[in-house]
Predict the structure.
Amino acid sequence: MPRNRKLRSGIGLVEGQQSNPTWQVIESLVNGGTDPSRLMELYYWTREPGVIEVIRAYLALPEATQRCLGDLLLSSNPGTIEAVMDAQGRMMLTQTEAEPAPPLKNLRRSSGG
């Protein structure tokens, strides 16, 4: 039976696991200075049904589409975004806020920078 040994990084691995890529990723996450609360949040998100599939689908989108969708989601309140599909299969995303937030570059100009 393999004996546990402590690696310099502090994670206890069984002999032979050091060469397993999965264990290397786990060791890197745990010992790489990542905030443990972020790891727990990631774990809980991945437990939600369908989240992994949505992430994979997003990552399969063309880069320009990822940027466009990401910019919309990150620059506004996602709860104010509505999606509608038309008969041709096109999706229209609309922000329902009365006044959208001003673009970041306008904020920089108005602050004298």
User: Anything to note?
Assistant: The first helix runs from residue 21 to 31. The CA atoms of residues 81 and 95 lie 4 Å apart. Confidence is low (pLDDT under 50) at residues 1-9, 106-113.
